[in-house]
Amino acid sequence: MSAAELFARANDAFFDDEYEDAVINYTKSFLVDNTNPEVMLRRCSAYQKLKEFQKGLDDAAHALNMLNANQGSRSMLARGHLQKGICLNRLKKYNEAQEEFLKSKELNPNEKSLAIWLRKNEEKLADLEAKKQREEARKAKEEARKARAEAEKAEEEAKKAKAKAEKAKKRAEQKAESAPPAPAPAPSPSPAPAVVAPAPSTAQAYRARHEWFQNDAFVTVEVFVKQVKDSDISLSFFDKSLSLTIKMAAAGSEYSLELDPLVHEIDPKQSSYRILSTKVEIKLKKKTEGIKWNNLEGEDTLPSHLAGTSGSASSVRKPKDWNKIVSDIDKDPEQKGGDQALNELFQQIYANADEDTKRAMMKSYVESNGTCLSTNWSEIGTKTVETKPPEGMVAKKYNQ
């Protein structure tokens, strides 16, 4: 397979959120043709999605070396510095990240998402400076307190020593020479060695599945996590990006979702989210209503179109939203239909299944008109399940 074919396969995996497959195919493409810096920049983006920021930083640096050696274009150099800056920011090296963002701005002030990352990084730098000043003030105050305490302690010890000396002198004068010596004080027991608890291990990034769908006005992103409170969520909407962090208290880790850049602009003020029992639902208000999003993130690789507004019915059958059907059944598990025993068996299997199995069961049952039941989503997810009536029977349409 050629480098271009492997590169295209990696891009498809990236836009399908299959970032590990994307990394594998970007690597294969680079092994076939190691002269294309674009491959390194794309693999850097995939590593960012996998939270492997040091590997992403290495790829960005490699791409910049290739571009500088071959006199790359200003726009490509700007992208390289931007990607390097993002990795440094996520590694909390904010001063180094700022240098890369400023280099990118000098080469191409209009580089996508540069303004957003500059603002984020500058806010972090301001927070660090404020924290540093607070820490310096605290240390100065603490040192002054210690100095006062030491002076007071020295004065008190001097008074005690003087009083003790006077008392000993008086007692010696009154004590008879024949008095037995005072017993030596018992040695104080040695303190037991302190048991040092092992340092807690660094929490791993929490991984969760997310899906999305849309209508004319909104794009809805669903993140499938459980036992989440509103105080655990930090969510920021921007014109062309989304930043989500969820503290997973039960797992002792954090889940992070960065959609940057979104394929189209949104209205941050009219975007919102809500917390359900099994997921967090995020509604992104489309800035241009009626436009179809072919992707959620990155560049729109397919031509977008506006939804029709005429009163005539469309001849194209709209695909069913199996996530919504599964959600509806989760909300009303007592809903029944058809033969009672079969329905109860269906519900029993469904109640203990995972999300993909539930979707497969609903899709196969509905599309086959109740004649087939599959639990394999990877097998039926991309095709229509045919009606297969029992032997000796013929399937007919409703009006036949």
Automatic annotation (TrEMBL):
UniProt keyword terms in alphabetical order: TPR repeat
Start-end of Pro residues biased regions: 180-192
SMART domains referenced in this protein's UniProt entry, alphabetically: TPR
Spans of repeat TPR: 78-111
Biased composition (Basic and acidic residues): 139-176
Gene Ontology molecular function, alphabetical: protein-folding chaperone binding
Keyword Disulfide bond: no
Organism superkingdom: Eukaryota
Domain SGS span(s) in chain numbering: 311-400
Family annotation (PROSITE patterns): CS, SGS, TPR
Keyword Ribonucleoprotein annotated: no
Gene3D superfamilies: 2.60.40.790, Tetratricopeptide repeat domain (1.25.40.10)
Spans annotated as Disordered: 139-198
This protein's GO CC annotations: cytoplasm
Listed name of the protein: SGS domain-domain-containing protein
Species of origin: Syncephalastrum racemosum (Filamentous fungus)
